[in-house]
Amino acid sequence: MAKRMNIILEDETAQTINRAAKPGERSRFINRVVQYYAAMHSPVALRARLKHAALRDRDLVAFVRSDNTRVDIQAKAKMSLGTGGLLASLSDLKI
After folding, report:
1. How many alpha carbons lie under 13 Å from residue 95 in its C-beta half-sphere?
2. Are 81 and 87 in contact (CB under 8 A)?
3. Which of 29, 1, 2, 24 minimizes the C-alpha distance to 13?
4. pTM of the full predicted structure?
5. What's the total number of domains in the chain?
6. Are 73 and 60 in contact (CB under 8 A)?
7. Does 22 reside within a domain?
8. 3 in a structural domain
9. Between the CA of residue 90 and those of 26, 50, 71, what are the distances in Å?
10. 61 shares its domain with 87
11. Per-residue pLDDT tens for 8-51?
């Protein structure tokens, strides 16, 4: 159920709403903006975004760590090849 409310807005805010919303759709536009803002700034939404970022960063760290290991193995192989070491080629390595 809709509820009628009288609110006071800054002139600049009212102009922004008038530019963004078609005539006759201001209420719907304001409702969507308020719902979006509340959803993005609630404590639950903040926790969800922090959890997502932590998981993303964990996966990124694992990827970088594995990539660095691969680079280290390749560097050791090049050093061994250059000094007449035991490794005949990079294909001898278990990557």
Report:
1. 17
2. yes
3. 29
4. 0.48
5. 2
6. no
7. yes
8. no
9. 66, 41, 12
10. yes
11. 999 999 999 999 999 899 999 999 999 998 888 888 888 888 89
One domain, residues 36 and 63: no
Residue 75 lies in a domain: yes
Domain holding 72, by residue range, is 56-92
- Give residue 63's pLDDT: 79
49-94 pLDDT per residue, tens: 889 888 888 888 877 777 766 666 767 667 666 554 455 555 555 5
As a residue count, the chain comes to 95
The type of residue at 9 is L
Cα–Cα distances in Å, from 49 out to 28, 32, 40, 41, 53? 27, 20, 9, 10, 6
String of DSSP letters for 42-66: SHHHHHHHHHHHHHHHHHHHHHHHH
What span, in angstroms and rounded, lies between the C-alpha atoms of 72 and 68?
6
In a domain, 76, yes or no: yes
User: How many Å from the N-terminal Cα to the C-terminal Cα in the chain?
Assistant: 62
